[in-house]
Amino acid sequence: MKWLKTYKVFESVQEIESIVEKYISESEYDLEKSLGNCAFFAKDFYEWCVKNKINCDLLYLKLDEDFIEADEIEDHIIIKVNGYLIDFVYSDNGVSKRWRNQNESEALKSQIKPNIISESDFNKFYSKFGYFEIEEISYDDAFGSGGRCLTIDYPKKSRINFIK
To answer: Cα torsion at 139, 141, 146, 150 (round to 10°)?
Structure first.
């Protein structure tokens, strides 16, 4: 059975919070100073989880047609780790790009303290914004050539080199 991969298993929301905090502290990106989109966070966090042998899934949320506004058609992508949904762009007012840009300071706070809920609470949190179904999606379908999700160029943390 040497070909089987082993993954870390997390059983409580506190354990999930601790891995999110570790991701944020280890990120090469300046998460506290610039807004990201859901695709950026899903891609970066997913890659970090793979590197750290944390089993996770990408979840694609299609916006229901009744909620679509002419200037804002936004599907959404988040991460699932051991039955917990992790959303870096969620707020009580939604996940829309327009709202996040108009409320940048609150949006920046949610990036470093993302919403973490049990998968069983999905409808309670997302249905009010027009998301009713979860679809597991592969990394290639999300971010590969012709993938469904568009990430952004995100600023990296500045590194100061000290000369001794």
So the answer is: -60
Domain ranges in the chain are 41-139
In one-letter notation, the amino acid at residue 47 is E
89 φ, ψ (degrees, to nearest 5): -115, 5
pLDDT attached to residue 59:
97
Alpha-carbon span 39 to 47, nearest angstrom: 12
CB 55 within 8 A of CB 82: yes
Structure tokens at 79: 């991460």
**Full pLDDT tens readout for the chain, 164 residues:** 454 444 444 568 899 999 999 999 999 998 888 888 999 999 999 999 999 999 999 999 998 888 776 556 588 999 999 999 999 999 888 888 888 888 898 889 888 999 999 999 999 999 988 899 999 999 999 999 888 888 888 888 875 444 44
Contacts of 157 (CB under 8 A, 6+ apart): 27, 28, 29, 30
Give how far Cα 108 sits from Cα of 28, 93, 105, 128, Å: 16, 14, 5, 22
How many Å apart are CA 42 and CA 80, to the nearest integer?
Answer: 10
